[in-house]
Amino acid sequence: MYFRISVASHPRFALVLGQGARRFHVAAALNAKAKVAMSRFEPNSSINYDQLRSNIDIVRKRLNRPLTLSEKIVYGHLDDPAGQEIVRGRTYLRLRPDRVAMQDATAQMAMLQFISSGLPKVAVPSTIHCDHLIEAQIGGAQDLQRAKEINQEVYKFLASAGAKYGVGFWKPGSGIIHQIILENYAYPGVMLIGTDSHTPNGGGLGSICIGVGGADAVDVMAGIPWELKCPNVIGVKLTGTLSGWTSPKDVILKVAGILTVKGGTGAIVEYHGPGVDSISCTGMATICNMGAEIGATTSVFPYNHRMRTYLEKTGRGEIAAVANENQDLLVPDSGCHYDQIIEINLSELKPHINGPFTPDLAHPVSDIGSVAEKNGWPLEVKVGLIGSCTNSSYEDMGRAASLAKQALDKGLKCKAQFTVTPGSEQIRATIERDGYAKLLRDVGGVVLANACGPCIGQWDRRDVKKGEKNTIVTSFNRNFTARNDANPATHAFVTSPEIVTALAIAGTLKFNPETDFLTAPNGEKFKLEPPTGDELPARDFDPGQDTYQHPPADGSGLRVDVNPQSNRLQLLEPFDKWNGKDLEDLQVLIKVKGKCTTDHISAAGPWLKFRGHLDNISNNLLIGAVNIENDAVNKIRNILTGEFGGVPDVARYYKKHNVSWVVVGDENYGEGSSREHAALEPRHLGGRAIIVKSFARIHETNLKKQGLLPLTFSNPADYDKIRPDDKISIVGLKSFAPGKPLEAIIKHSDGSSETIELNHTFNETQIEWFQAGSALNKMKELQK
Question: Which parts of this chain are annotated as the region Disordered (predicted)?
């Protein structure tokens, strides 16, 4: 039995619901009135809970135990639920995600790789989102126009590639990828992969959304099963109720303090318990978003009435209705097992602020002033920044605006500079309509473009000089050294939008809004009342301008041109195949000391403009990493000349002289962004292996995809045996096999040598990537 919901009766969209199959198909015919709201959906979008249920039933019978929510959704997307070996933390799962999303900085390389594959069209619904290339400088409208002019070539490439290969294109100004996904594409039970590490944001709507590199996205777009190591499951039980100054952001700030930046590696964090119902859908998304900072594969919440309300308010009431009928699939089974359990009483949780320089250094807001004084951190707050993909919902903006109004009513404005980044065009238009934007401007704020902006280093900051010690507070997710403004002396702290707003008004870290008083211009002492704000607008969201380009039904006749003289875009050449021999006498390029994130390996900010040009972007290889030889950044010894030079310069010199090299690193190497450039660049410049104490998940996979060897010390203390001028031979590759360690012969300049054992996590398919030279090379081999 089928029935149609007409556009006239439901202006948001027209859907066809198959009662038996529980499948939605979006109707292709739309009238002009529905265009803006409907344009986000593709005709081949579908929701099929029957298939999910069938797969879950097969797996539950095989495992004969209750399943967690994340297991239901992940195992429900298995390519072969009857035959797949399933062991948490050990086996590799072959999965069939429902869709792919790419932000513009990573989409360039992903689409270049897809073009190289020779395939005519993507096999699953996919979208490109223009959010990373807009620099915050003056204000929203001016910055957006400037970005369109500067990035015209890249935007044209992405739009035309999307049209040719069947990929939807969200234009610059549409908003941040994760907010667009939450508003349009995420739904309970879906599996989505995105080429950005904060893709887990969609877990706030009961989705399994996982950040990956571009090569993984190409696999899924090509219709190839996608591999993921079977994740462990960390349960976070929430009790009590959020209230007062405590916000959803404080949950993940607390969890980050408990688990640290690598405590979630290889695991999905699954929130459950009675406290969940006190958190809004967008609040749950905030928590899942920042789960990337603990290394988690993703995070997820169980389906509840808060999600249903959000679906209804964003024009997806029919999806909510079918989710209600299948709610047993969208919550954990009673008695399911978690590998680790953390319990948090929301009624006792206090507002937190984390940093500086790492997102897991957690402090109660009440303590940060004294802690900063003790450590010599600057107390004056120079800039407060709210928004970003983590905290830019209608509720976030409303709660911040409620504080702005209190200050304005007393005649106060922000002592610090204050910026506001709406998460999407829909959020921008709605907060303008409802007066929130005006309040935030009136208190001293500058409303920036609907884009990532300062969160990813797209910030033309001019109030301090580089090297000047200063403090900023943000509602962002990351605060690595120099990430936001390219100034390594900036002490960046992450917290909730409410606390950012309060500290921007007060102008100091020594202000605790729960207990401290502000002074009005007339001398009156007053306290800020706890923030308030509606979870969702009383009226429908205002969609704002139409910023979506739908791909044509047949784009085969379209051309995608890349100018060979371009300094922004470059077609890819295949990497060389493995020659069948051990890797002999690899020169140590750099022995990295301490934290080395993807920001250290491939910086963002001004380098974002080269994300589509592999040779140009490679000029930032490891320029932020600390060289253990001299504690300097971007200063390493060229063993062939004896002179010191920049890391990319020395790497290029080695490549020119046919010297292959290796990088040696510390713990959690490659944490942070999903950017695969951090793997493409070392491969392009002649690297063959990365040897470290431990890897972050996405980066390890990205290295494998590009034909590099990510290896870990069997004994972490062996890191100390390697000297910066050593040569290393990796032996045992002729019998390279899953679970079988390799050996490294370390050759010192004094003529002595040592042999150590190196572990790896390659499976048979991944070994074939190495042998072929890359996963893309292997894909092409299979097409012949």
Answer: 520-540
